[in-house]
Amino acid sequence: MIVNVENPVLEIHDLTVTYSRKPVLWGVDLTLPKGSLVGIIGPNGAGKSTLIKAAMDLIPKSSGWVEIFGEDLKKVRKKISYVPQRESVDWDFPASVRDVVVMGRYADIGLFKRPRKADYEAADYALKQVKLSEFSNRQISQLSGGQQQRVFLARALAQQADLYFMDEPFAGVDAATEKAIINILKQMSEQGKTVVVVHHDLQTVTKYFDWLVQLNTRLVASGPIEQVFTQELLQETYGGKLTLLSDVSTLMHTQQLPVRDKT
Ligand SMILES: Nc1ncnc2c1ncn2[C@@H]1O[C@H](COP(=O)(O)OP(=O)(O)OP(=O)(O)O)[C@@H](O)[C@H]1O
Ligand SMILES: [Mg+2]
Hints:
Blueprint (H helix, E strand, L loop, with lengths): L9 E10 L2 E11 L4 E5 L6 H8 L7 E6 L4 H4 L3 E4 L13 H7 L2 H4 L7 H13 L15 H15 L3 E5 L7 H16 L3 E5 L6 H4 L2 E6 L1 E7 H4 L2 H8 L2 H5 L2 H7 L9
Parallel strand pairs: 3-7, 3-8, 5-6, 6-7
Antiparallel strand pairs: 1-2, 1-4, 8-9
This protein binds adenosine-5'-triphosphate (ATP) and magnesium ion.
């Protein structure tokens, strides 16, 4: 089931991406509404990170196009923030936590200008939001995995973008921090910002997101959560793997969603 929206924030048309001739995304058509908090789910290797990278123009497309705010990405890059999957980042980079977060402002500052007071204020506020103020002068390499993840979130928050792509922001983050972060993301979407999050925990999907994208090389579903978080579509996305993840009927029950029978 694929629900399309008018005047989407993100529009992807017929996107195919191949690595060494093997398609990892196949004919993906997708639109996302403004102000939504979007979850992207699918098994390992489904192409979730690839979808975000292709939307950000970080990898070549075999076919298809992407428009963000109705424009080519080049024109709107400043309005977009990207938090990569943690494993893909080189954490030995010699910089303090505060410097890394201030770098989130560079799109605004311009490459050869120095950050100003307002930039440091935005960075400090973002660090406070992710509860890392006390680590502000630490070297980024000296933090724990979950703390590093929070630094990257702070960097994205400081950027004050309109569209956020976050690739597994909760990986390795403790429960209290996850809760704090999801509350920040909810506030952002209430302010009209669109937040797209790659997520693995099916137990929290309906609590966190209002729009859900289910991916497995092909786009299986995209739509309001109550329409697409169904046993059938989850089964199609995860195949036999779903039973390993959790018992589907229990999942439906705990999320208090009706299990739809095929009619
Ligand atoms: N640079 C690359 N070169 C070759 N193959 C790649 C490359 N990056 C990703 N792939 C392959 O593309 C497929 C999709 O990868 P991707 O990282 O998008 O999956 P994912 O859904 O994000 O998975 P995960 O849940 O593990 O993060 C995988 O089979 C992966 O092995
Ligand atoms: Mg990934």
